[in-house]
Amino acid sequence: MPPRLHGPYWQWTAKVAGRTVTLRLSNAEAARYKEWIANDRRLRRTVEQMREVDEQARGIILAVEQARGLSPLNDPGTAGPLVESQAKPDGVGLAPHLSVSATRSGRC
């Protein structure tokens, strides 16, 4: 009997150094990758929530300081307000978007 040549197959696809990389995975590897992908998504949601809280806190702190006359805009000892690139940096070291999917071979 010939080996089973038709899917479904598990594969992992991601951008690595600007190139698309695809790996065929065993069932065991696919289970592990699913867990890693879920962890990555959970981490990304948590970081986004942290950024939202940071933005809210920054607004509150600046409003309170301004109400007290302590605004960094009026303080010659400060460099002024943070610019967007300083306040919310991109690429904080998270992995690229990952996904695992089952595909079927086009042949029957």
Question: In a few lines, what is going on in this structure?
Answer:
Mean pLDDT is 76; it is low at 83-96 and 104-108. This protein is 42% helix and 19% strand. It is an alpha+beta fold.
Describe the SSE topology.
Elements: E1 9-16, E2 19-25, H1 27-67, H2 84-87, E3 99-103
Antiparallel strand pairs: 1-2, 1-3
Number of domains: 1
The gyration radius over C-alpha positions equals 24 Å
What does the main sheet amount to?
3 strands, antiparallel
* Share of helix, binned: 40-55%
Task: Give the strand tally.
Answer: 3
- The oligomeric state of the chains shown is single chain
Report how far the terminal alpha carbons are from each other: 16 Å
Ranges where pLDDT stays below 50 over 5 or more residues in a row are 83-96, 104-108
Q: What amount of the residues lies in strands? A: 15-25%
Shape type: rod-shaped
Number of helices, counting only DSSP H or I runs of 4 residues or more: 2
Which sequence of SSEs, written as H and E, runs from N to C? EEHHE
Spatial arrangement of strands, main beta sheet? 2-1-3
Structural class: alpha+beta
